[in-house]
Amino acid sequence: MLLNARTDENEAYRLLQHGGQQILRSFGVAKLTDIPPSYFDWIEQLPSFLLLENYVLVHAGLNFKRPDPFADERAMRWIRDSPVDPELIGHRVLVHGHTPIKLESIQRQLTQEPVTEINLDGGCVYSEREGQGYLVAFELGSRALVAQKNAEKLPPD
After folding, report:
1. For 113, which DSSP code?
2. I need a surface site. Which of 61, 86, 93, 151 has the fewest CB within 10 A?
3. Which of 41, 39, 45 is nearest to 26 (CA)?
4. Which residues pair with 93 in a beta bridge?
């Protein structure tokens, strides 16, 4: 969304409704065009997915309706609720975010056998939603899940 917002006014407006103000604030700038180009260059060079021995890491998910789910780059950024076909990803676990779910649901995914998918989106920006408002990390080697409540939304001491 950030990359598209550089050249598309509608996308820029949409970004500003979905975290864009925080992006501008983090860079200490007033406009998207004031963000140093090196950041855009870095984002453009990032791979759309990482294929590891036991995991596939991707932002949103994969389109398992296609014979090659790795061919659909748009789905990797935007798809929601696509049932995993383990055979198409070499029986790896699909790790993604993009669709906020309750922390309890994230924890429950790790107890299912076999684990085919782990959605790590704890809805960090949605601390007003029950069970959400968490930044979540997953350590692949130990399979340890770490969750931190959104510190910006915590009541003052």
Report:
1. S
2. 151
3. 39
4. 55
- How many Cα atoms are found within 13 Å in the side-chain-facing hemisphere of 2? 19
Closest CA to 62 of 121, 117, 111, 110: 117
Beta strands at 134-139 and 55-58: parallel, antiparallel or unpaired: unpaired
pTM metric for this prediction: 0.88
Confidence of residue 58 (pLDDT cuts 50, 70, 90): very high
Report the run of H or E that residue 149 belongs to, with start and end.
strand 144-149
Compute the distance between CA of residue 65 and CA of residue 83 in angstroms, rounded to an integer: 9
Across the chain, which distance is largest between two alpha carbons, in Å?
Answer: 53
Q: What digits encode the pLDDT tens for the residues 59-72?
A: 999 999 999 999 99
Query: Helix (H, G, I), strand (E, B), or coil: what is residue 153?
Result: helix
**Closest by alpha carbon to 94, among 120, 124, 74, 65?**
120
DSSP codes of every residue in 45-104 = HS-SEEE-SSEEEESS---TTSSSGGG-HHHHHH-------GGGGTTPEEEE-SS---HH
Give the span between the Cα atoms of 69 and 75, in whole angstroms: 9
| Tokens at 145, concatenated | 């899940």
